[in-house]
Amino acid sequence: MPSYEDVLAEVLIDEGTLQARIAELAKEVSEDYRDNEALLLVCILRGGVPFLVDLSRRLTVPHMMDFMAVSSYGSGARESDGEVRVTLDLQMNVRGKDVLLVEDIVDSGNTIASVLEILQTRQPATLKVCALLDKAERREAVVPIHYRGFVIPNKFVFGYGLDLDEYYRNLPFVGVVDLEKYQPRRSPA
Ligand code: IMP
Ligand code: MG
């Protein structure tokens, strides 16, 4: 894997801007859920992890967290094409809880749409979506995004949870890949 500096076209959202927006989102979520009994943050592995951690640390309401992993059916190419398969399920029962899905990015929307459908059958009290990034131009599925960090252009991005062939999820900023210097093989859901 090349060093990230060699494949970075530009920093799209720097660390300060990300953290400031996450603080705003955390404030909004804390206000909206102040009277709720059982807030459960559900993080979709692996991309949602840095966002979950930073958001959670700034919430002023008591909450639980749990994790699930999904993979998209089909080609394994960059595009996800509809249904997803749960590869790691939640440990907790979501029935009666206020579930907030925490995602790194909504692209086609197919991943979130499927996850919402799966979780809805388990009868949570409420079910909402908090997504750091929204590649709105690429939307195929109609999905609600109740809390949204940033709308971004249709570019392949990496860092802050988003991977470049599984690397660089650790970067504290979101960067754009220079596709002339690096062609991502795939982007798992
Ligand atoms: P969707 O089902 O098309 O909304 O895809 C969402 C998933 O695709 C995300 O959770 C990411 O794992 C991945 N993804 C979409 N766009 C990018 C990107 O620009 N960089 C890295 N991963 C991405
Ligand atoms: Mg993801």
Q: SSE layout and pairings?
A:
Layout (H helix, E strand, L loop, with lengths): L3 H4 E6 L1 H18 L6 E7 L3 H10 L5 E9 L11 E5 L9 E9 L3 H11 L5 E9 L12 E5 L5 E2 L15 E4 L12
Helix pairs in contact: 2-3
The structure holds inosinic acid and magnesium ion.
Outline of the structure:
This protein is α/β, with parallel strands linked by helices and 189 residues long. Helix content is 23%, strand content 30%.
Keywords, separated by commas or semicolons:
189 residues; 4 helices; three-stranded antiparallel β-sheet; Rossmann fold; binds magnesium ion; six-stranded mixed β-sheet; 9 strands; alpha/beta; binds inosinic acid
3D structure, described in words:
This protein is α/β, with parallel strands linked by helices. The protein has a domain at 15-71 and 84-152: Rossmann fold (3-Layer(aba) Sandwich). The protein is built from four helices and nine strands. It has a six-stranded mixed sheet. It has a three-stranded antiparallel sheet with strand order 1-9-8. The longest helix has 18 residues, at 15-32. The protein is globular, with a radius of gyration of 16 Å. The protein starts with a helix and ends in a 12-residue tail after the last strand. Bound molecules: inosinic acid (IMP) and magnesium ion. Inosinic acid (IMP) binds at residues 47, 80, 104-111, 156-158, 162-163, 187-189.
Rg, alpha carbons: 16 Å
Question: Helical residue percent?
Answer: 10-25%
CATH topology of one domain: Rossmann fold
Q: How many H/I helical runs?
A: 4
Structural class assignment: alpha/beta
How would you name the oligomeric state of the polypeptide chains in this document? Answer: single chain
Bound molecules: inosinic acid, magnesium ion
Q: What is the strand content?
A: 25-35%
Quote the average pLDDT. 93
Low-confidence stretches: none
- Tell me the overall shape: globular
Number of strands: 9
Taking the alpha carbons of the first and last residues, their distance comes to 20 Å
Pattern of helices and strands: HEHEHEEEHEEEE
> What's the CATH class of one domain, please?
Alpha Beta
Strand ordering within the main sheet: 4-3-2-5-6-7
